[in-house]
Amino acid sequence: MEEGSRLESILVADCGSATTRVALIDLVGGEFRLVGKGETATTVEPPWSRISLGAREAIGLLERSTGRVLLSGQGELIVPERENGSGVDGFVATVSAAVPLRVGVVGLIRELSVDSLLKAVDCSYVVVDTVFARDEMAGNSGGMGGVLRDTLRNRPDAILLAGGTEGGAVTPVVEAAKDVAAVLSSSEWGGRVHVVFAGNTQARSEVARVLGECSDLRVVDNVRPAVGTEDLEGLEEEVSRLYRDVKLAHVPGYG
User: Do residue 166 and residue 235 come from a single domain?
Assistant: First the structure.
């Protein structure tokens, strides 16, 4: 759509694990209204193994029910809307056909860093497999590393690590990173796991030194820069990127 042109028609698609639905929303009499819908089975599984096939089929059903041409002869969506009424000005899609991203949460204090991590991943495409709060392990005779190893035995897709306020102590954060590194370096863990560090920025260099060799380390803003302050946006965006990279990228026909 050219800069400055109006958005007058939108095609919305929802590709779920079982059903793919599309809806056409158009400007009618100065108001946006639902013009028509199409629905078919999602085609992410064999024998189709391509999610876009189901989307095109649903759009085809919508074309037949509304009499409006939305796809070109090559099966591509026509954007923007043409003068003859074919096509649409905008397209929005949601994809939930992929399985959720499984994460393990590791923090220093349950009521601070751990709670902030859990808030940041409170969404439909993330499942929290394990939660490890270091303050709850104080005095444990089995050692932090052993408890953490048991906690992460389900091998999550990613580990989220946080702890320490800005200007606070660095040593406890680094010790937590060492606990994670000890687990990831063990022979039972094959390949490099994704780790996102969202803690005290002054600990970044030491955390990178500890975890850089045994993980795919990503660093974002501290989720708890002060005791009474949260900053979740950076972690939320990084988890969204991980979901796209780790899960959606493997959905046949996505992208």
Answer: yes
